[in-house]
Design goal:
This protein is α/β, with parallel strands linked by helices. It is built from 30 helices and 31 strands. The termini are far apart.
Length: 992
């Protein structure tokens, strides 16, 4: 046999052996190979050995087909949850060792496989759950996974998903489906849950996986609430039709040319999943569509039988397995529209099948929009808002329905009243999906927790410098200058994409779409004016002439070239503008060759110059949009965004961030032009600061969920009803969600062992400020005069270079009781903000065995002669810090990042600092308190030459890190009271 035929035979042999283990534990490999070889040629029997595998692996590359087969199966076993065949944690070396043991592999083969297929480090979903009865197991589904198996193969073979990504989706969709009610159980139960993803991050793939598994398990009516806009509903319908429902279910015996996708290039290119025949002919069951891409749900009239469910055993209920698994499933994607949902409710009431027998799955895409009730039901004569009322009707009339909301902005959903049984509060589970590999999200445009100070930041270590460009204008002419620069960047990045296709080896039409989004307003009259301006700028830009080339050359030299030099990730970068210039003309032609370089997407038929249908054609255009592009709808190929619109809450603003998503091959070219001084009434709003605050709110929420997801004694540490207190707010004017969607709860105790805590709600009244200054002054006076230099060395990590944070400080010690007494005496503008911290300090100090030995008091001092404040009668001088409140009484960030490393190390939260002076201060049960005297800008001119200032004009602020060992014995990290409409209590979130 030739080497090629031997490799092919070996691949077939291992594919067959490993496929047999797909739904079971790993089994003896050689025995499985011998068994499969019996049905193959005699040469196959010679290859049925570990030696043959090892020889192939020794010469294999990571992308070889044999390695890919092993990668899929090993990744599945790496990700598998709790199982009878392994006690090891998933995605660990120990789990992989258990797999190898069961396969009976030698040490040499193990090493080869580990090199070619490393243990996956992908994150698992975080699950906050109530207790539930497990029912969704491989045993319960034996022989029935049809649509999930097909969908998984589609992702692997058609979409070329990485095995880690497929396995991660498998685990995440399992986490949802197993918490739904068993569709075959006699007693009806209605589970309600929420899945939290990232904006533009692939939530649709997750709910497609959930639908596939749910219908395989027996759910027979699937209702997908596909947003509030026709564009989003159609986009969702097409995605499910193409990847899950399949050609045969779409056609149902009709001609290929009669399909509603006959004009869709993907249909003729055979990109829609196909089964070879109707699934019912092949021993499975069909899915009947009750909506199409172009048609939302309509009253069925005489065709009402389309909603009727057939029973093979008429005397038994539909949910009985003897009926359920032989019946056809129905699926519809409906817009969240009162009239549409009313038609559906009316038709359901007409069918003969008892509604109490139908297992129903309701998927609510963008569940925080329109679905949440925004009226106060405690008021007399109040009614639910229209969409919420219809969803409640569906849940009430379909007792076996399961509700799963999907959103990237979950705050409105977790503020729903838990005591309202007819509402959509996720009482059973909240699943937080991991950030996907290759995703470009809010964090990728900000420098959160960066160890580099402003002057140290470069294109390589600063996301802001690399991707964000400021819009600061005082009149329309200045706006035109900024807008022209953004359009120039759009043309230049288009030329870069063509260059990479031809010179970078990506191939023709690798970049099917290339778009720029201009988002300034939701008003159609504003779009009309903006269309005129952008049209004028485009045709006067002179891209084919010397003036245009000169602007593009300058932009290339100062922006594209230096950024791509350090962020291109191996993709081709021209050595000069001259090398790129020949691609500018084709780029301009691709964008505006049809004399329509701009598409307005807002529904105003008079000014729509083209339809943004990314499914039917390649689009290289500038998009002007408002509400239609503000939520859910995927803008493909988005490279340049020009954003000046303000929203009043975090959820709305985050959803407008269409620049988030996957940017394979052009991540370094992405640019975000943001308004940094937008005037709104009497306020001046920095949109970059707003997005950073949202990012902090979101990351804090996800971190809290992850921390509290750990089980304690086999039981959930928190349930979904106790999640509202985990929502934070970093900007006072930017609420987590609309005030009429916010449900309040009171957090009682926050265990923050080893975590930096920074209160910001300091008082504004002179008497309280004077009290605090007089409280802290003797404490600072008592500090020794010696200055100590503290430092923390951060080693290099990824693209981040190693750096050392060093600062000088006065140091002293406080006993646990002294610091607690001090903390109790501090006055606040909003006492509720610090109350959970204070309760925690009381717990670790006053317990039978105190969890803290002492607190190191740190008063950081400026390295150079700078701001000095004279405090107390002794005349001691201390560094003061210039900070201002973002809105009374809250400050923004107060501490300086360079002070955190050493303090966290002293409290035991970080590894060795690499600094002897810092290490001498580390003891196991020591906490750190860092004091910052703050002077606000309005009082700075009043400070005299000696640094004296009236005590009521100084804000004494502090941060603290409790010892990393100061944890509760039972493992719980918080205690709180959740307030619902059936109980009284104090709110901590101001919704005014």
């Amino acid at each position: 046999m030739t080497s090629s035929s031997t490799d092919d035979l070996l691949l077939r042999l291992h594919t067959a052996a490993l496929s047999d283990m797909q739904t079971s534990r790993p089994k003896r490999l050689v025995r499985a190979l011998v068994y499969q070889a019996e049905d193959m040629s005699p040469q196959a029997q010679e290859l049925a050995s570990e030696e043959a595998l090892r020889e192939a692996l020794e010469r294999a590359r990571p992308t070889d087909p044999l390695v890919e087969v092993w990668r899929r199966r090993l990744t599945d076993w790496d990700f598998a949850g709790a199982s009878a065949w392994s006690d090891s944690t998933e995605r660990t070396v120990n789990r992989r060792g258990d797999v190898y043991d069961l396969l009976g592999l030698s040490e040499e083969t193990r090493k080869l496989l580990d090199t070619l297929v490393p243990v996956s480090r992908a994150e698992a979903p975080v699950v906050i759950t109530d207790e539930f009865t497990p029912w969704y197991t491989p045993q319960s589904l034996q022989g029935r996974p049809w649509y999930w198996k097909s969908y998984r193969s589609y992702l692997e073979e058609k979409k070329r998903w990485d095995p880690d990504a497929v396995a991660s989706l498998d685990v995440a969709s399992d986490a949802v489906v197993e918490r739904l009610a068993d569709p075959t159980q006699e007693a009806a139960y209605q589970s309600k849950g929420l899945v939290v993803g990232y904006v533009q991050s692939g939530k649709t793939a997750n709910f497609a996986g959930v639908i596939a598994k749910a219908v395989d398990a027996g759910y027979r009516l699937v209702i997908v609430l596909g947003g509030t806009l026709n564009m989003l509903r159609a986009q969702t319908q097409r995605r499910l039709d193409m990847e899950l429902i399949g050609r045969e279910n779409i056609l149902r015996g009709a001609s290929e040319f009669e399909s509603d996708y006959a004009d869709d290039p993907a249909w003729s290119q055979e990109k829609f999943v196909a089964f070879g025949d109707l699934p019912s002919v092949r021993g499975a069951f069909d899915i009947v569509r009750l909506t199409t891409r172009d048609d939302d749900y309509k009253s069925l009239l005489q065709g009402i039988t389309a909603l009727e469910f057939e029973k093979q055993e008429p005397a038994l209920p539909l949910y009985d397995p003897r009926n359920l698994h032989r019946s056809t499933a129905r699926l519809m994607v409906v817009k969240k529209n009162k009239d549409v949902l009313t038609k559906l409710v009316q038709d359901l009431r007409k069918i003969k099948t008892p509604l109490s027998e139908i297992p129903v799955l309701i998927i609510d895409d963008e569940s925080d929009e329109a679905s949440v009730n925004t009226t106060n039901l405690t008021k007399v004569d109040s009614e639910r808002t229209a969409i919420n009322l219809k969803i409640s009707e569906l849940l009430r009339m379909l007792p076996r329905s399961q509700y799963v909301g999907y959103t990237a902005t979950p705050f409105a959903n977790v503020f729903v009243d838990p005591s309202d049984s007819e509402d959509i509060f996720p009482k059973d589970f909240i699943v937080s999906l991991p950030r996907p590999e290759g995703y470009m999200g809010a964090r990728d445009f900000h420098d959160l927790d960066s160890p580099f100070s402003g002057e140290e930041r470069t294109f390589a270590n600063s996301n802001e410098l690399a991707h964000v460009r400021d819009i600061i204008v005082s009149d329309e002419d200045e706006d035109d200058v900024c807008l022209q620069k953004a359009m120039d960047m759009f043309v230049l990045s288009a030329a870069m994409k063509l260059y990479r296709e031809e010179r970078g080896g990506l191939g023709d039409r690798y970049f099917q779409h290339h778009t720029m989004l201009i988002h300034e307003s939701v008003r159609t009259e504003a779009h009309r004016e903006l269309l005129g301006r952008v049209t004028r700028l485009w045709w006067n830009a002179g891209y084919m002439g010397p003036s245009g080339h000169e602007r593009l050359r300058t932009l290339f030299d100062t922006d594209i070239a230096p950024v791509s030099a350090v962020r291109a990730d191996g993709h081709a970068v021209p050595s000069s503008y001259e090398e790129l210039a020949r691609y500018v003309g084709p780029a301009v032609t691709r964008i505006g060759g049809d004399d329509k370089p701009i598409i307005v997407v807002n529904g105003d038929k008079d000014i729509e110059t083209g339809q943004a249908d990314f499914d039917k054609r390649s689009i290289w255009k500038i998009l002007i949009g408002g509400q239609k592009l503000a939520r859910g709808f995927t803008v493909e190929g988005l490279t340049v965004s020009y954003f000046r619109r303000r929203a009043g809450n975090a959820s709305s603003l985050m959803q407008m961030g269409r620049w988030f998503g996957f940017r394979e091959g052009y991540r370094d070219l992405v640019r975000l032009f943001l308004g940094r001084a937008e005037s709104v009434r009497a306020k001046e709003i920095d949109l970059y600061e707003a997005f950073e605050a949202i990012c902090l709110d979101e990351e804090n929420f996800r971190t809290e969920l992850q921390q509290y997801a750990t089980m304690v004694d086999g039981k959930p540490q928190v349930t979904p009803a106790q999640v509202p207190p985990l929502v934070s707010q970093h900007l006072p004017w930017l609420k987590p969600t609309s005030p009429n969607k916010m449900y309040n709860a009171r957090l009682v105790s926050l265990n923050s062992a080893g975590q930096w805590q920074e209160p910001t709600a300091y008082p504004t009244k002179a008497v309280d400020l004077r009290h605090n200054t007089n409280l802290w002054t003797p404490v600072l006076d008592a500090l020794p005069d010696d200055i100590t230099s503290l430092a923390y060395h951060f080693p290099a990590e990824g693209t981040r270079a190693a750096t050392t944070h060093r600062f000088d400080a006065f140091l002293g010690r406080l006993s646990p009781t002294d610091f607690l007494a001090l903390a109790r005496e501090v006055r606040w503008g909003q006492p509720s903000q610090f109350a959970p911290n204070l309760t925690y300090l009381e717990e670790i100090t006053e317990a039978a065995t105190s969890a803290v030995d002492d607190w190191l008091l740190i008063a950081p001092q400026h390295a150079k002669r700078g701001n000095r404040l004279t405090l107390g009668g002794a005349g001691r001088r201390f560094a003061w810090y210039a900070r201002d409140r973002r809105r009374d009484p809250l400050f923004g960030a107060i501490s300086e990042p360079k002070h955190r490393g050493a303090a966290l190390r002293i409290a035991g939260a970080l590894a060795d600092s690499g600094d002897p002076a810092t290490e001498r201060l580390v003891t196991p049960r020591r906490g750190a308190v860092i004091v910052y005297p703050v002077v606000e800008s309005k009082h700075r001119p009043e400070m005299d030459a000696d640094g004296r200032l009236a005590p009521e004009k100084v804000v004494m602020t502090f941060s603290f890190v409790a010892p990393s060992t100061a944890r509760r014995a039972d493992g719980r990290v918080l205690r709180f009271t959740t307030i619902d409409s059936s109980k009284g209590g104090e709110a901590i979130i101001d919704t005014q």
